[in-house]
Amino acid sequence: MRPPLYYRLAITALKPLYRLFLACKKANLPHYEREIAERFGQGYLPISHDKPVIWCHAVSLGELNTAYPLLRRMLADGYHLWITSTTQTGFNRAKMLFKDELGKSVQHSFAPVDDVAVLGRFLVHIRPSMVVFVETELWANTLSVLAKQGIPSVMANARLTQKSFDSYAKFKGLSQSMMANLSLIIAQDEQSYRNFIVLGANPNKVKQAYSLKWSGQIGKAQTLDNFNNLTDFTDFVKNRPIWVMASTHEGEERLALETHKRLLAVFPNLLLILVPRHPERFDEVASLCTQFVYHRRSLGESIVDSTQVYLADSMGELMVWYELSDVAVVGGSFVDKGGHNPIEPVSLATPVIMGRYVKNCAEIVRDFADVGVLMQSDDDGLYDNIKAWLDNPALAKEAGERGQRLVQERAGADKVQFDMIRKLL
């Protein structure tokens, strides 16, 4: 089913503007030359094998991390992967996660723009047996071209919140075309399952399974292995209470630092590990820390006895900071970003606090709250909630273990989703 004419015309008109947009941001795009070429169907790295290829599109770092266990199953089953990302952080994350396979069983590039001609060149190059879109991002022309060429398309770990549903519903013809062209939708929660069907998806094509986030945790033993690549922090954090505020966005770092200042009056030896979400904000966040004795990971500085705030301005080490901490505050939830993944700290038996903005993981938050490992808080209550966990380490340990057991019970989500996908291959 072709997308509406207005959409096809809009994409054609916007192509040169998007190229100009990238050119204007060139100074901030370290992979600009590759991005500009690959976005428009040129300069792809060669494929030197005849194995079946699955194209997986994961918008950015978060989606790629979520999809990682599913992609590992595909590789183990003999398929090769071509991974595309929309952002520079997603592109870099693919390079990190698959460093040993890149150029062999895995290749990656920036996603092609949603133009029929560009898609044609891209598909001729990679010749995928299937395409898997992770979580949310769909493109109408892409789905139409795939359907026309008989290439199955799957939306894995699919999520459609009420807000997103309302936006899609305003463009009924466009949404119906995308739903019609998808071969399979694997919804990660009940609300998404219902919303996809109301939007026009064939109920026979919509399945439901636990989120891949339940499978994406590397676990305590593997996390500790990462210390081989880090300064030996353990000597500096013994017998110190520690809390982490992770994946923070603008506004949340100030909240963390204000809260930490109050907590230091009660716990003078307390350490805050602060982990901003986006690398481009690292220096900005560092400038907020100057009222404390602080050190930075990016400068190779260690945690020492006098450190009050440790700015973990690095990528790919989040699980290590969770491992070190007694309490984890998960960001993107005290500002309207929808909340980041609380399963990561809970998988390490760490109790969690989140704000009120959790639409991205609402069911997971409810499940964790039910077993007592997660508390929700507003800005004013953050101090009291952190203090409550720090004052009661035995209760925090019990809550963490209950949460960890729940994670372990649901850790097979990647196998469930892969078995659904495999039937189409």
From TrEMBL:
Enzyme active site: E63
Species, as recorded: Moraxella caprae
Signal peptide range in chain numbering: none
Primary localization class, coarse: other
Domain Glycosyl transferase family: 301-404
Entry-linked PANTHER family: 3-DEOXY-D-MANNO-OCTULOSONIC ACID TRANSFERASE, MITOCHONDRIAL-RELATED, 3-DEOXY-MANNO-OCTULOSONATE CYTIDYLYLTRANSFERASE
3-deoxy-D-manno-octulosonic-acid transferase N-terminal domain sequence ranges: 35-214
Pfam families the record matches: Glycos_transf_1, Glycos_transf_N
Transition state stabilizer, annotated site positions: E135, K213
EC number, UniProt record: 2.4.99.12
Protein name: 3-deoxy-D-manno-octulosonic acid transferase
MF (Gene Ontology): Kdo transferase activity
Localization in the cell: Cell envelope; Cell membrane
UniProt pathway annotation: Bacterial outer membrane biogenesis; LPS core biosynthesis
GO annotation terms (biological process): lipid A biosynthetic process; lipopolysaccharide core region biosynthetic process
Job of this protein: Involved in lipopolysaccharide (LPS) biosynthesis. Catalyzes the transfer of 3-deoxy-D-manno-octulosonate (Kdo) residue(s) from CMP-Kdo to lipid IV(A), the tetraacyldisaccharide-1,4'-bisphosphate precursor of lipid A.
Keywords: Cell inner membrane, Cell membrane, Glycosyltransferase, Lipopolysaccharide biosynthesis, Membrane, Transferase
